[in-house]
Structures are given as C-alpha cells and as structure tokens.
Amino acid sequence: MRRTAVRAAAAGGEPQEALPATAVPASPPGADGPGSGSASAFAAPGAATAPAPAPAPYRLQTEFPFELPRGYVDDAGTVHRDGVMRLATARDELVPLRDIRVQENPAYLSVVLLGRVITRLGSLPLVHDGVVENMFASDLAFLQDFYRQVNSEGHTRASVQCPHCSEPFEVELGGSRLGES
C-alpha cells in the first residue's frame, strides 16, 4: 500500500517522503486514546524493537477420525465403528454428479460422496459407496453432518465486525446441503 501512495503522489507532481521501512505500530490500533500517554502511533525510525516471534508453522489437518453411533455391520457380522474421513476436493464433489445413480436420484449424491472421502472404517480393506448405502440411517445422518463440519470449517463462516458497536461475530456464507458450497 505504501508504494501505491508514493506512486500516486509522484504522478500528481507532489514530492512526498515515503514512510521508513522500520515504522511499526507501537501499540494496537485503538489503544491510543485520551489519557493513554502515547505521543505517536508509530515507533521512531531506527528505534529498537523486540524481534517478532517466528510464526508457528501452519499444518492443515486433512484427515479426521470419527466413531459411528451404531456401526456398519459387514457380511461376517463384524461391527465397524471407528473410521477416518479426509477433506473433500472439488473433484470429489464434481465426479458424483456424472454418476447415473445420482442423476436419477439426487439423494444418492451423499452416498457416493461419502464413499469417496471415508478412507478407513474399522478393519474393512476398502470403503466405497456400496458400504455407505448399507449403513444404518442414523450412521448415514451422522456422517453427513460430520462431512459438513469437516469441509466447511473456515470456509463458509466469516468473521465480521459490527460497524456500529465494533463487536466481532460470525456469519454463515455457504449452503446447507451435503456437496453444496
């Protein structure tokens, strides 16, 4: 932003001095007020400031463990309850739309989609839409809700601030159905 202001001033013919690169806020915005005793919102150029701590490396969590309320019962009668779901990709949400079962019955979208993003369920060697369609309805509802929580975190909610009282709050931006963003 500083470069833009300097270029704009230079284009207008008025020479302006750019802020020094060492200028940093001395206190958070809004902290200076009547009676605060602060003479300036910026530290003096060349003033010693404490080095900023190195930011912690950001690690994106892509897999999320879950436990089904009832559990999937396989052909041998074994109940599988613990599993792992990964974050969905755009491809995960687009490919099922070409599936003939989804085209004939849009409610089947969640079954196909969950079959793609569940990476592990108990000791099953493979999880696919056939496994999901044979789950109990309560487990399917649980997984649909879990999918929404996992894939909408940080994406469909936005932190905003009230323009009148400056109080922070969140608003919902995304859709509410599975596979809808």
Please render the helix and strand layout as text.
Blueprint: H1 2-11, E1 63-73, E2 79-86, H2 90-94, H3 100-104, H4 109-117, E3 118-121, H5 129-133, H6 137-152, E4 157-161, E5 168-172
Summarize the structure.
This protein has 181 residues and is an alpha+beta fold. The chain is built from 6 helices and 5 strands; from the N terminus they run αββαααβααββ.
Helix content: 25-40%
Mean pLDDT: 77
Number of strands: 5
Sheet bearing the most strands, described?
3 strands, antiparallel
Radius of gyration: 27 Å
SS element count, helices:
6
How are the strands ordered across the major sheet? 1-2-3
Order of helices and strands: HEEHHHEHHEE
Low-confidence spans: 1-40
Question: What is the straight-line distance between the termini?
Answer: 33 Å
What does the overall shape look like? elongated
- The secondary structure category is alpha+beta
Q: Name the beta content range.
A: 15-25%
